[in-house]
Amino acid sequence: MTTSANNTATAIAHTNIALIKYWGKVNEQITIPYTGSISLTLDQFYTKTKVTFDPQLTADQLLVNGKIQTNLTKVSRVLNRVRQLAGSEKFAIIDSKNFVPTSAGFASSASAFAALAGASATAAGLSLTHQELSKLARLGSGSASRSIFGNFVEWLPGDNDDNSYAVPMTDVTLTDIAVIAVNINSQSKTISSSQGMQLSANTSPYYSEWQNVVARDLVNLKHALMTNDFALFGQISEANAMRMHALTLSSLPPFTYFEPGTLEVIETIQALRADGIECYYTIDAGPNVKVLTQTANLSLIKDHLVDQFGPSRISVAHPGPGIEILEHERN
């Protein structure tokens, strides 16, 4: 499909947290994972991206929060696929703004590439389904495939470009969920997520068992979500996160994303739980901790964490929406 000049569209996509983790890629170039995963899209943190295809441009241009970026490798994967689908050779200017505060400790790659997929496809005149957008976003970031959808989402791993995509989870009755983010360190990681997961997949003697663990956890977490079992939901999410991080410690060379503050939050949550306050934690590839709880205990746990770590390090979120296309302009 060919398109007219200077096509523009804007999209908003929200970040997500993985509850059953994705850790390792069968195919690095098109982001095919070894296992499935389940995530929760959040309401407070998002990326707004505007894409304009312009025949006057001689290369793609990317601005993130007003700053020109020079590394467009992953962005180009998404845009090249859009150009291929649209039958177009136009380059684009991408203006992306992250409303994912550094103090929240959330990575913005999921929301950023989901928004890029939605805005670029629409600007190019493509009418893609959400499933097709999920596959497109996956080319930039695996977790972005899940941010196309709201609430609880499952990424079906597949084994090729066509059958690896995310789907919204239906029949979920567990809806009372709150997430408290504790930011330990917002600086760039020494070992990126991509580097870390490939090191684990290639060198950890326990990686094959990790795939079995994920298969069981996917089944059990779905059961918890469908039966409104928050305790089971929390137990599985917490254990899955720790088993993922066990892979980093068993890699060669060993590494960890944990910092002293990470362990401090873990101990705090364990102590609160021992006192009868139901809460659990999950940790992605970094030192920051996300606490999983419900409305009845939210204020108490938040106040406790604010007293311990300070208000600037604490953020609260709830289940959030899927991608939204804000505008589609054609000149």
UniProtKB/TrEMBL annotation:
<feature type="domain" description="Diphosphomevalonate decarboxylase-like N-terminal">
    <location>
        <begin position="13"/>
        <end position="166"/>
    </location>
</feature>
<dbReference type="GO" id="GO:0019287">
    <property type="term" value="P:isopentenyl diphosphate biosynthetic process, mevalonate pathway"/>
</dbReference>
<dbReference type="InterPro" id="IPR020568">
    <property type="entry name" value="Ribosomal_Su5_D2-typ_SF"/>
</dbReference>
<dbReference type="InterPro" id="IPR029765">
    <property type="entry name" value="Mev_diP_decarb"/>
</dbReference>
<dbReference type="Pfam" id="PF18376">
    <property type="entry name" value="MDD_C"/>
</dbReference>
<dbReference type="InterPro" id="IPR014721">
    <property type="entry name" value="Ribsml_uS5_D2-typ_fold_subgr"/>
</dbReference>
<dbReference type="InterPro" id="IPR041431">
    <property type="entry name" value="Mvd1_C"/>
</dbReference>
<keyword id="KW-0547">Nucleotide-binding</keyword>
<keyword id="KW-0444">Lipid biosynthesis</keyword>
<dbReference type="GO" id="GO:0005524">
    <property type="term" value="F:ATP binding"/>
</dbReference>
<keyword id="KW-0443">Lipid metabolism</keyword>
<comment type="similarity">
    <text>Belongs to the diphosphomevalonate decarboxylase family.</text>
</comment>
<keyword id="KW-0456">Lyase</keyword>
<feature type="domain" description="Mvd1 C-terminal">
    <location>
        <begin position="180"/>
        <end position="312"/>
    </location>
</feature>
<dbReference type="GO" id="GO:0004163">
    <property type="term" value="F:diphosphomevalonate decarboxylase activity"/>
</dbReference>
<dbReference type="InterPro" id="IPR036554">
    <property type="entry name" value="GHMP_kinase_C_sf"/>
</dbReference>
<dbReference type="GO" id="GO:0005829">
    <property type="term" value="C:cytosol"/>
</dbReference>
<dbReference type="InterPro" id="IPR053859">
    <property type="entry name" value="MVD-like_N"/>
</dbReference>
<dbReference type="Pfam" id="PF22700">
    <property type="entry name" value="MVD-like_N"/>
</dbReference>
<keyword id="KW-0067">ATP-binding</keyword>
<dbReference type="InterPro" id="IPR005935">
    <property type="entry name" value="Mev_decarb"/>
</dbReference>
<protein>
    <recommendedName>
        <fullName>diphosphomevalonate decarboxylase</fullName>
        <ecNumber>4.1.1.33</ecNumber>
    </recommendedName>
</protein>
